[in-house]
Amino acid sequence: MTVAAGPKEQHRFFDVDRRTDGTAVIVARRPPVNAMSPELLLELERLVGEVGARAETRAVVFGSAVPGYFMVGFDLAFLGDRIDRGLADADLDELRAIAAQVHRTMNAIEALPQPTIAAISGHAVGGGFELSLACDLRLLSDDPRFRIGLPEVLFGLIPAAGGTQRLPRIVGKAQALSMLLEGRRLDPREALRIGLVHELAPPEGFDEALAAMLARLARGGPLAQALVKRCVREAFGSPETGFLLEEAGFVDCVQSADGQERIRGFLANGGRRPPA
């Protein structure tokens, strides 16, 4: 994603570009794949709060400065280290705290009063894909190499950044269960077909498609858009129970023999792909 010109703030994991049209562009910058970490999540939550509180912010875009990747999930080496040394009570408490932090960050994105766009110009899997689900709109590069989805079950884990709650609300229970239970990742055309993304853009015209989407959003009244978002979000009821189940389930998976074996296998394979 080519970020738009404007006042630029550089942080440890993200750049924030504030355009004169009121768009705030939050760009992930953690090579090689924008993997999540506790520090990255804390920074993202803070930046989301800051841009959302600015009166001049009309829309928020989440993108990536890493070619070929939007964002991926948590670095499994972090889990592998703790599994290898034996999961002590302190480790489990740490995992619970991380899962809760993931939810706070994604919930902060979903609760932004401004329209939000996930500008997906690369692979978006695991927690990175869940970040896109917390956004209002998803624009995906029409590059057949890119995949989006939630492969956690292939590692003996479950999505723990809101995926089990948000995905069914977007594509329906049947499609969501198929993706979640199989750990299936979709190519751009399939993602568009089931309504998972709102629009595909040719790679060479991605920025132009994003600009057009932002222009359409700019026609709406900011207060009206904020109230529309609130009505739609609250009409679905509170997913808090689901989030708590995710947090507990995630820790249970990391404690399980199957989960530990799959994570070790992935790391031993160089972390190139999920288990078959």
* Helix proportion: 40-55%
The total beta strand count reads 11
Terminal Cα separation, in Å? 31 Å
Low-confidence stretches: none
If you had to describe this structure to a student in words, what would you say it looks like?
The chain has a 7-stranded mixed sheet, sandwiched between helices. Strands 5-7-9-10 form a 4-stranded mixed sheet. 40% of the residues are buried. It has one domain (8-204, 222-268): Alpha-Beta Complex (2-enoyl-CoA Hydratase, Chain A, domain 1), CATH 3.90.226. α4 (127-133) crosses α5 (163-171). It has helices at 38-53, 76-85, 89-110, 127-133, 163-171, 173-182, 188-193, 206-218, 222-235, 240-255, 257-268, and strands spanning 8-10, 14-18, 23-28, 59-64, 68-71, 116-120, 122-125, 137-141, 148-149, 185-186, 199-201. Helices cover 49% and strands 16% of the residues. The protein has 276 residues and is of the alpha/beta class.
Can you give me a brief rundown of this structure?
The chain has helices at residues 38-53, 76-85, 89-110, 127-133, 163-171, 173-182, 188-193, 206-218, 222-235, 240-255, 257-268; strands spanning 8-10, 14-18, 23-28, 59-64, 68-71, 116-120, 122-125, 137-141, 148-149, 185-186, 199-201. The chain is an alpha/beta fold.
